[in-house]
Design goal:
By secondary structure, the protein is an alpha+beta fold. It contains twelve helices and five strands. The two termini are 26 Å apart.
């Protein structure tokens, strides 16, 4: 388990403990916030999961896939790259027919463009493909599983992040308790990206934000090989980690959050849908994704939100 990365790294433990402690203090000082976490206000817009944006291909006997037990190619926690759904989709995207880079780019664009973000508990990767939505970690896992099925090494990159002002305003600011929690920590738990080994080097692939959400934030549309750090969010120094698998404990925290704060999760999911719809209109007015992206890249970089932070002596990160 340790060799595969199932055991959380020390930095991960610090981050998760910091988040739990911060939330616990917040709820102790503001017990009335528990009701806000759990409920949606009457007459508020409710979240309805969007229809899948693709038809999942059927698995057929004889489809090629990688059965290596080598690191970064084998199945790991929540990332069964040998599931029939994964193999079928990898073959449809051109596994073993395209070059490694061409396939990785195809997998990147499929996950980024076809699977919108939805905040929900962890599940196996094949469930994500059958549902068509997921958190950033669901989507990163989907990308990694496709690459591993095609025989291309892929891994996770995690870090603590704070977000750009536009995302803060449209995602965090929609829920008063989540806003207090974020402001008290100065970061929003863990974020992640995928990395794939092509052309003799590790190449980043951040599949979390759809082009529409990035357009709604007024930033460029990140491409395969472009890091979202500095564009979509900012990583806290000393918190970057790379691993073969998602660790134990992360799923339990998300599951606990779902039980504790279903109202907050729904508010964030509604906000995400509204961002996508807003971004869709912006892209249409610009003349398409490429035209919008060209305009966005001429502008200045994103701003970090201003927060009143509390000192946290118990959490120290070092490069």
């Amino acid at each position: 388990m340790k060799e595969k990365g199932y055991i959380p790294q020390r930095t991960q433990v610090k981050l998760m403990m910091g988040g739990v402690i911060s939330l616990g203090k917040l709820l102790i000082k503001n017990p009335g916030d528990i009701k806000i976490l759990r409920q949606m206000e009457p007459l508020k817009e409710r979240y309805i999961r969007p229809q899948m944006a693709y038809d999942l291909p059927k698995y057929k006997d004889g489809m090629k896939y990688c059965d290596s037990e080598e690191k970064y190619l084998r199945p790991t926690l929540y990332c069964n790259c040998r599931a029939p759904e994964v193999i079928a989709l990898a073959n449809e995207l051109g596994a073993y027919k395209k070059s490694d880079r061409e396939f990785a780019e195809a997998a990147f664009h499929f996950v980024k463009e076809k699977l919108p973000l939805e905040i929900l508990p962890f599940n196996e990767v094949e469930v994500t493909f059958r549902r068509g939505t997921g958190t950033c970690f669901h989507l990163i896992t989907a990308f990694i599983a496709l690459c591993r099925a095609a025989g291309i090494k892929a891994r996770y990159k995690m870090f603590a992040m704070n977000m750009i002002q536009a995302w803060y305003d449209s995602t965090i600011d929609v829920d008063p308790v989540v806003k207090k929690w974020y402001d008290s920590m100065g970061y929003f738990m863990l974020e992640g990206e995928g990395e794939v080994y092509v052309d003799g080097k590790w190449t980043v692939a951040h599949v979390g934000p759809k082009a529409e959400r990035q357009a709604a934030a007024g930033i460029s549309v990140t491409k395969f090989g472009e890091d979202s750090i500095g564009v979509w969010f900012f990583a806290l120094p000393g918190t970057t980690m790379r691993m073969e698998s998602l660790p134990y404990g992360l799923a339990a925290m998300v599951g606990f959050a779902k039980k504790l704060a279903p109202g907050s999760m729904e508010r964030v999911n509604v906000s995400i849908q509204n961002q996508i719809e807003m971004g869709r209109k912006i892209i249409e007015e610009a003349g398409g994704v490429e035209a919008y992206d060209k305009q966005a890249r001429k502008k200045k970089g994103p701003k970090q939100p201003k927060m009143d932070l509390n000192g946290r002596k118990e959490i120290i990160f070092r490069e």
